[in-house]
Amino acid sequence: MSTGTEPDRTEEVSVTGTGLETPASATPTVLRRKGSLPRWAPLGILAATAAVMAGVVVALGSGIGLWLFFTAVVYAVATYTASRVVEGARKAADRLVTVIVTGAFLLAMIPLVSVLYTVVSQGWERFDVAFFTNSMRGVVGEGGGALHAIQGTLIITGLAAVMSIPVGLLTAVYLVEYGNNSRLARAITFFVDVMTGIPSIVAGLFAYALFALLLGPGVRFGFVGAVALTVLMIPIVVRSTEEMLKIVPNELREASFALGVPKWRTILKVVIPTTAGGIATGITLAIARVIGETAPLLVTVGLATGVNLNPFDGRMATLPVFSYYSYAVPGVPREPFLDRAWTAALVLMLIVMVLNVVARLISTFFAPKTR
């Protein structure tokens, strides 16, 4: 029963084989569903493209680089065309972007894999016990090791970390918790940005000039190199710590203030522990960043052939400088020096890799619990 104000809700139904069919104009339009390429299609297209381009490159007498380039370009075009015909324009564009991104990733991996393979294959020759237990004192040919350089690297980098970490942490705390976008905070941020981009040789020249004014020209010892590395580490520690402190929710600070906790204690007990994992990760990566610097240590520390564990007296050897001199100024015969240079580079790369793994572990174990 319907009233005079209710609209008529009767719907027309199309029934095949009766006289109740609706007009063609009233029939809803059915979208045609596109097909999809089989799962093996991308690999099949890639294999076919590589085979065809191999024949073309052989006919032209070109090398493997041109073959890889032609294969990538033709594969992208063939994949897009096949997907456009079968799957439609949207899916074809998605496949094309996937091919481009994957190609960019593989292109970036080529030099990384090449460096890794070269260092490991060349440095494995002298990766033995003698390399880690002997120095170069009295060695003019075969034999010897880099014990003095490993110890010097660890001592100088450790001193740099001891000096730069407190300064970087306190600077970041001031910028986030006390700066309030003041003129001083903006000036500090500007100079930190400038220090982040300075060449490492400039840090070495600064440290050398500073101690030359204090102690006289020609001064070279481990602490000078540690100061140079500190100049490079501080902006990295400041930036990483600042970003970690910024992500702490203000609600945590306000809850602490509501309980009557002073600001300094809130920072120590609430803010910093919340981001301890991220701060430790940034510090570890900063150490990994400066441990392989060569230019500032060439200027400030120099090279030594024996063990020197006192960073305040005399020259010290470091792995980057030891590797550089062994490769750039080899003795006679050249092969033992080159082998030691590659092995020193391998050891340095392993140290950096260990530091990165430690950073990942710290980030995992000290991350805030979400459950």
TrEMBL record:
Residues 1-12 have a biased composition (Basic and acidic residues). It holds the Pfam family BPD_transp_1. Residues 1-27 are annotated as: Disordered. Residues 150-359 form the ABC transmembrane type-1 domain. It comes from the Bacteria. One of its GO terms (biological process) is phosphate ion transmembrane transport. One of its GO terms (cellular component) is plasma membrane. Keywords: Cell membrane, Membrane, Phosphate transport, Transmembrane, Transmembrane helix, Transport. It is found in: Cell membrane. The chain crosses the membrane at residues 40-60, 66-86, 98-120, 154-176, 188-215, 221-238, 270-291, 341-362. Residues 13-27 have a biased composition (Polar residues). Gene3D superfamilies: MetI-like. It is a multi-pass membrane protein. GO terms for molecular function: phosphate transmembrane transporter activity. InterPro entries: MetI-like (IPR000515), MetI-like_sf (IPR035906), Phosphate_PstA (IPR005672), Phosphate_transprt_permease (IPR051408). Belongs to the binding-protein-dependent transport system permease family. CysTW subfamily. Part of the binding-protein-dependent transport system for phosphate; probably responsible for the translocation of the substrate across the membrane. This is Phosphate transport system permease protein PstA. It comes from Pseudonocardia autotrophica (Amycolata autotrophica). The gene is pstA_1.
